[in-house]
Protein: Importin subunit beta-1
Organism: Sesamum radiatum
Amino acid sequence: MALEITQFLLSAQSPDASVRNEAETTLSQFRDQNLPGFLLSLSVELANDGKPTESRRLAGIILKNSLDAKDAARKDQLVQQWVAIDISFKSQIKHSLLTTLGSSVREASHTAAQVVAKIASIEVPRKEWPELVGLLLANMTQPDRPASLKQATLETLGYVCEEISNEDLVQDEVNAILTAVVQGMNVSEQNSEVRLAATSALYNALDFARTNFDNEMERNYIMKVICDTALAKETEIRQAAFECLVSIASTYYEVLEPYMPRIFELTSNAVKGDEEAVALQAVEFWSSICDEELEIQDYEVPESGDSSAPHSHFIQKALPTLVPMLLETLLKQDEEQDQEDGIWNLAMAGGTCLGLVARTVGDAIVPLVMPFVEINISNTDWRSREAATYAFGSILEGPSIEKLSPMVNAGLEFLLNAMHDENSHVKDSTAWTLSRIFELLHSPATGFSVITPGNLQRILGVLLESIKDAPHVAEKVCGAIYFLAQGYEDAGPSSSLLTPYLPDILNSLIITAERTDGSDSKLRSSAYETLNEVVRCSNLLETSQIISKLLPAIMSKLEQTLNLQIISSDDREKQGDLQASLCGVLQVLIQKLSSGDETKPIILQVADQIMLLFLNVFACRSSTVHEEAMLAIGALAYATGPEFGKYMQEFYKYLEMGLQNFEEYQVCAISVGVVGDICRALDDKVLPYCDGIMTLLLKDLSSGELHRSVKPPIFSCFGDIALAIGEHFEKYISYALPMMQSASEGFKNSKPDLMLPHAPHLLQFLELVAKDKQRDESVTKAAVAVLGDLADALGSNIKVLVKNSSFCTEFLGECLQSDDDQLKETATWTQGMIGRAFSVCG
């Protein structure tokens, strides 16, 4: 039965810490000792309109958190706890929650709607709450039900549809939900809160409506109601209706043709004159149509134009009116848009959509945009100049080089001059446009570039001057330098063009990274990322002296970070960000200098100092640094080879920490990669550390907490360890193979892309096992099973791998001739899996 917990819930929110802690302890004990009674008491509290709002609010929060969590392992645990509760308790809890939907206190009914949906997400797929939809729909169909109950019920239906899969409901239930929802959206519905809840519910229910959208009559009715709702007098309802149209654009693109004239009219009017929240959704509709058409074009057969999906060419047809509409949005900038992150306004949405339109239709967009650019680029109003520049930059991806090059060549000097514009918004967009030009139209390796020996000095002069501008402009200038340098990678003789300017570029980037006028570390990160790219793409033979001078300077900067005064968590975060950036630069310098025989000794001479720096950085204990320092250590291991052994004793504890870091799984993944680097560097000298490393890797593989993307690289890592220590790997085989087998099985149902990069290593590892003539029978069974699982998971992708691996045929032959029936059976299955892959390939 339910207990009286009001006072504890109120005390748990007390400003007095001792009162608060005591109440929290009591509630925790209640939960741990009697979970069913605890959840029932919470649901009764939430349902009681006579209770204080504060206690009901906390009861609802605790209920939600008892059923759901962001962390997958925790969520699974909560689901199992709910499933294990006695059915009589669950029925009482669900009854309380459904009653709460009728509460006159909006916050309580809203929370109940969310909790009902969380329970539905557990029970509906298990067919354990078959009456739910019927109970909810009764609230909508029975006469004289209050509007507040209808609103809460529609909200619940929406949340339930969001939580469950469309396979979980039968078609009759879907039909009944859609009928109730569409009825609630109708113009005849007097209550605007009900209408809004219905429109939001439809948004979540659209995925379930495939059968209804296949029926022309039902589709016409649903589309009419949505389009009518897009004209409601309340802004929120109009916005919700346009959100439905955005979803329909991607889910039901193939049936949209008859409705496009009306939708164009609605979106056009919204963009021109509605509130920004509504206008943004109207633009988003066209962005979604572009995404669909780009996807269809990606799958088209070039010669025939054939595609499995119908291509209605909505963008091409709407182009003459769509483009002017989007260009108008560019003039609706926000004064603060460049200064603040996360701002999204109509001008930005319009520019993004314009870019998608350019990618969809290619050359056809140029004559529609260039007159706007030419008219506005010299206008006295900054908004016009900025809009023209933004429009120009937005259409550079999609049209052909032949179409773009004349206008870009003609406009380049104009853009360089615009970097001195009096308005910072114009300079910001100009720098962004230059970075787009250098990214898309500067590729000396393929024979085309807008940058020539004649204009490079002028371009770099402007960029290195403009990098001193306001932080938001300087950040975009970093992007322009980044792509300018990237274009010279592998560009043969052309890469020499940048060499004379390298000292000035590197110096400017270091000065920019040290600026203190930026509100956050974004400019510094951009400057260092650009510096990395400049170093990476430079011509080593010509620039080795310049780059080698950079090494001690960066090492010194990293050393200085170790002595920063850390008082607050903010200080710790800033130190971590700076260390991460500097470790990133050192990684690139190590890779660059160690890639040439003449320059490799430069790294070897300072390797001890570099490693000591990295170990000191680890001691600062920041996860982001852990990541960057790990990557840099991997590069150092590769560069120093067997010499890296002398650092292992000190480094091992940090490697161990990385391999155990399940929460920040990227750190774990990088640590796995570093094990591979170390194995390749040390060969059999890694042996003393292998017991510890293998134990941790096996623990990683068997963990339910660790993100699954980390597991395939561990297969590669086993291969690296086996290659490094040879016959000494034998003692790990009986542990490693079963783990690999169960993990391979887990990847059968997911995309093969996850497994593919690691498959060659896995085969290499299996080959080592196959060559071991002293292997145990159980090891042989596991190895042949892993081979079969791999073929099953990769499908036709296995063909080329097996062709290049002669051991497969021999190993399978040996297993098929075995006296052990179970082994023969497994080998026959594996042979079938490989055969199937070959037959699929044809």
Strands lie at 442-443, 448-449. The longest strand covers residues 442-443. The two ends are 66 Å apart (CA to CA).
